[in-house]
């Protein structure tokens, strides 16, 4: 591949066609930069149901290997932070992704406070509040 930093698009209805030698003027979009190509593909696929997520989240979560069927919601390739993939999963299950994202943001803030030595203050406030309820 001579130009690995650009992508070209050609819409067609007949499968298994070869477009390797297609002239530039016959492409729908020719030599498009990656960021713009991602936007174009999102538009072509019209995946409004998963907005604000893009096709990469859908494909990344949907493609599985055999080991991924042990826990249907946890894929091996998503062993990173839960905040990176659970909002997408929440969207697919019909939950409010803003609440899920906010939950992880609050958890991160609490973890940051804990690592800064504010752990005792948080515990004391929580204990005092539970006695008042």
Q: Please give the number of β-strands.
A: 2
Helix-strand string? EEHHHHH
Strand content: 5-15%
* Overall average pLDDT: 78
- Count of DSSP-assigned helices: 5
How is the quaternary structure best described? single chain
Which class best fits the helix and strand makeup? mainly alpha
Radius of gyration: 23 Å
Helix content: 40-55%
Low-confidence stretches: 124-133
Widest sheet: strand ordering? 1-2
Shape: elongated
Distance between the amino and carboxyl termini = 67 Å
How many strands, what sense, and barrel or not for the largest sheet?
2 strands, antiparallel
Report what the structure shows:
The chain is mostly helical and 133 residues long. It has a domain at 1-46. 48% of the residues lie in helices and 7% in strands. It has 5 helices and 2 strands. The chain has helices at 34-45, 55-62, 82-92, 97-115, 119-132; strands at residues 6-9, 29-33. Helix 3 (82-92) packs antiparallel against helix 4. The longest helix is centred in the C-terminal third of the chain and has 19 residues, at 97-115. The radius of gyration is 23 Å and the shape is elongated.
């Amino acid at each position: 591949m001579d130009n690995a930093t650009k992508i070209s698009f050609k819409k067609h209805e007949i499968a298994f066609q070869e477009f390797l030698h297609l002239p530039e003027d016959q492409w729908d979009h020719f030599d498009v930069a990656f960021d713009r190509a991602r936007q174009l593909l999102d538009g072509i696929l019209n995946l409004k149901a998963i907005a604000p997520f893009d096709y990469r989240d859908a494909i990344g979560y949907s493609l599985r290997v055999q080991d991924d069927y042990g826990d249907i919601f946890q894929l091996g390739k998503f062993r990173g932070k839960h905040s990176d993939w659970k909002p997408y999963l929440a969207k697919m299950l019909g939950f409010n992704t803003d609440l899920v994202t906010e939950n992880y943001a609050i958890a991160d803030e609490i973890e940051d406070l804990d690592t800064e030595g504010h752990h005792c203050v948080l515990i004391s406030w929580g204990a005092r509040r539970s006695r008042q309820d």
